[in-house]
Write a structure and sequence with these properties.
Layout (H helix, E strand, L loop, with lengths): L3 E3 L3 H11 L5 H19 L5 E7 L4 E7 L3 E7 L6 H7 L4 E2 L2 E5 L6 E6 L9 E5 L2 E2 L3 H13 L3 E9 L1 H10 L4 E7 L2 E2 L5 E2 L5 H6 L5
Parallel strand pairs: 1-11, 4-5, 4-6, 4-8, 8-10, 9-10, 10-11
Antiparallel strand pairs: 2-3, 6-7, 12-13
The chain binds 1-O-pyrophosphono-5-O-phosphono-alpha-D-ribofuranose and uracil.
Length: 210
Amino acid sequence: MGTVHEMKHPLITTHLTMLRDQTTPSSMFRPLVRQLTYPLVTEATRDLRTEAITVTTPLTEVEGQRLSDRVAVVPILRAGLGMVEPVLEMLPEAEVWHLGLYRDESTLEPVSYYNKLPEKDPPDVAMVLDPMLATGGSATAAIGELKAWGVQRIKLLCILAAPPGVEAVVNEHGDVDLFVCAIDKHLNQHGYIVPGLGDAGDRIFNTRAL
Ligand code: PRP
Ligand code: URA
């Protein structure tokens, strides 16, 4: 059974407040997304399997651990790209598989435009990265694509969510764990999270005026 983890921490709240501020430029927005991703990864990897190894310190031998799960990191283009680097800093051996999905602005339905997932040998664990979970259409479609590959353990890491998106994930993929910095109040009539932070992709890539 999947779980919803809403992170509660004063550093997360303060970073999130700066991220929400419309005067925060892309040059500051990107490092804030990275900083908010670190605690999500720490929490989402809590149940990864490890195996014992022995290393020698300058003083003696000691038994330690190394990860034994094969982990895939799956950013949803474009905005999920902003979360890849901090995940790879913490999981340098992880594979990165991209999924291209955008929301049709009139129907709010996800449109898939890039999927090169292989047909066999799924990883043990996949971590889907997308800062925004609004209606949940994009995330549930991405999770569906990973399940079609055969991935059994899927985690969704988001910066902000709205209640309809959380509900969609729980209802359609009740086995998936969701890790999110904050769950906001609602969606507006255009499907934007309120109070939210605006368009995450545009703010990461500085394409707001286009
Ligand atoms: C944003 C966001 C999610 C999606 C969330 O992407 O990064 O992928 O919207 O909305 P949903 O939960 O209603 O599907 P967008 O479609 O703006 O594409 P972009 O990342 O390329 O800007
Ligand atoms: N996508 C975004 O980037 N922001 C929202 O508020 C909703 C979807």
